[in-house]
Design a protein that fits this description.
The complex is a heterodimer of chains A (170) and B (283). Chain A is built from six helices and no strands. Chain A is mainly alpha-helical. Chain A has a single domain, classed as Arp2/3 complex 21 kDa subunit ARPC3 (Orthogonal Bundle). The radius of gyration of chain A is 16 Å and the shape is globular. The relative contact order of chain A is 0.15. With 283 residues, chain B is of the alpha+beta class. Chain B has a domain at 113-274: Rod shape-determining protein MreC, domain 1 (Thrombin, subunit H, Beta Barrel). In chain B, the strands form two sheets. Chain B has a six-stranded antiparallel barrel with strand order 1-2-5-4-3-12. In chain B, strands 8-7-6-9-10-11 form a six-stranded antiparallel beta sheet, with no helix packed on it. Classes of the chains: A mainly alpha (170), B alpha+beta (283). Chains A and B meet through helix 3, helix 4 and helix 6 of A and helix 1, helix 2 and helix 3 of B.
Chain lengths: 170, 283
């Protein structure tokens, strides 16, 4: 029983560990060697999914900290990714408060709104207040592919959620 | 209508202010905090520079450790594959040997061309002089980003690295230092959108600016009026900016006016930082 509890705790930490690991490690989702414009932001998908489904697994403080780590690694001004992540988190929380049952299509649509807001803030702050120049087209491609890959991760995370939820009920 | 507006207001306020069982901070407080940190960092208040430098050094080290499995896994896979396909490996090595033989032949050609270009530039400084003033650095992090093309190296202000110093892979220019910490530095690569390098190429010593475009091949800008770029011309730094030494090889021109870089930025393990030209911080 004690072992089971430990395993369950570790499984519950999965999304948080993944978020931190993706923010701090070299692993990236920019596949320029295969297809130059292919890049997507898994962190945004993780945040949106888990905040809207199981907010107790992904605290806002952790999201904020993961954003700071990402900024240091990527060389962005501190706080920029945190803001982008928190905006996604805000939309996810709002959607969670407003809806009872969600399907993949509704989540997909609301995720679109979340990343539009998030990337818009990211782009506006970076282009107006920072010396770092970024290409609007690159941001658009990133937004597009993040949106495109959302259903795949939705299915994957839903399956994972069902495993940890089943464990919880037992 | 008013009920729907009320619902929106309640849900939005709740999303911003509510703290669940596992939430220690409300979203609004963290958004405000992130905004404050962002502006503190952007407007570079005095105390932020050392703070950021310490944070950077610490996180880069943690990142190096965290990334080690992802570096180790491909090596193990590669070793395993090699064991299984030893014949294939042998064939590949023979092909690689042939490529190196060809490269050896081209080295002589490149050396002669360098000498000629140096004469064109009428510069006393030689490539060999500045090679002796370089410091070898290990690439700590080369996380690819769709927005920024940069790497982190394990040398910082402690080793005398300053902003603006050129960074080389073998003798090929790969970028320049844009951020220095005590134990690490960030190098902006030539294909980054923010990179601009004065270059020269061709027998006539055409001057241009090599501008990063975020893609693999940077583009040549500010060419003479009506000039059409020929394919296969070697591009070198012109040294007009006073930062880079003239004659560092960069890449080869393509028909589209782009430059295919000699050094593959995604394959960098060790780089050299050039100390010879720059004596003081210019940025």
């Amino acid at each position: 029983m004690a072992n089971y509890k430990v395993i369950s705790k570790i499984l519950n930490l999965g999304p948080l560990i993944l978020l931190y690991y993706l923010s701090i490690s070299e692993i990236d989702s920019h596949f320029e060697n295969y297809f130059e414009i292919l890049s997507f932001n898994i962190q945004l998908i993780i945040i949106y999914f888990w905040v809207s489904k199981r907010p107790e697994l992904l605290g806002s403080g952790h999201i904020f900290l993961a954003g700071l780590l990402n900024d240091v690694i990527m060389g962005f001004p501190l706080g920029l990714s945190s803001l982008a992540y928190l905006v996604v988190s805000l939309v996810a929380t709002y959607v969670k408060n407003m809806t009872v049952n969600t399907r993949i299509t509704t989540d997909w649509f609301t995720f679109f709104i979340a990343i539009i807001f998030s990337n818009l803030i990211f782009f506006i702050l970076l282009s107006n207040f920072s010396e770092i120049g970024i290409n609007f087209t690159e941001v658009s491609y990133n937004t597009f592919f993040t949106l495109l890959f959302f259903p795949f991760f939705w299915v994957l995370f839903t399956y994972y959620n069902s495993i940890i939820t089943t464990g919880k009920n037992v | 209508m008013s009920s729907s507006r009320d619902d929106f207001g309640i849900a939005f306020r709740s999303a911003l202010l509510q703290r669940g069982a596992a939430q220690k901070f409300s979203l609004i407080s963290l958004i405000v905090l992130a905004t404050i940190i962002f502006f503190l960092d952007i407007y570079g208040f005095g105390f932020m520079k050392p703070v950021r430098s310490i944070i950077n050094d610490g996180i880069y080290r943690v990142s190096l450790v965290a990334s080690s499995p992802s570096r180790f896994a491909p090596q193990v896979t590669e070793g395993f594959k090699n064991l299984i396909n030893i014949k294939e490996e042998n064939k590949r090595l023979k092909q690689a040997l042939e490529v190196y033989r060809q490269k050896e032949l081209s080295v002589e050609y490149l050396t002669n061309q360098n000498k000629n270009l140096r004469k064109i530039l009428e510069s006393d400084e030689t490539l060999f002089q500045f090679q002796s003033n370089t410091i070898l650095s290990k690439v700590l992090i080369d996380k690819s980003s769709p927005y920024l093309k940069s790497i982190i190296i394990n040398r910082g202000s402690k080793s005398g690295i300053l902003k603006g110093m050129p960074v080389l892979d073998k003798e090929y220019l790969v970028g320049r230092v844009v951020e220095t910490n005590y134990l690490s530095s960030r190098v902006l690569l030539l294909n980054d959108l923010n990179s601009r390098i004065p270059v020269t190429f061709g027998g006539d010593g055409v001057q241009a600016i090599l501008k990063g475009n975020g893609e693999a091949k940077p583009i040549l800008e500010y060419l003479p009026e009506g000039y059409i770029v020929e394919e296969g011309l070697e591009v070198f730094t012109s040294g007009k900016d006073g930062i880079f030494l003239p004659g560092s090889p960069i890449g080869i021109t393509t028909e589209e006016g782009q430059v295919k870089l000699f050094s593959e930025s995604s394959q960098l393990s060790y780089v050299k930082v050039d100390f010879s030209k720059q004596k003081k911080e210019v940025f």
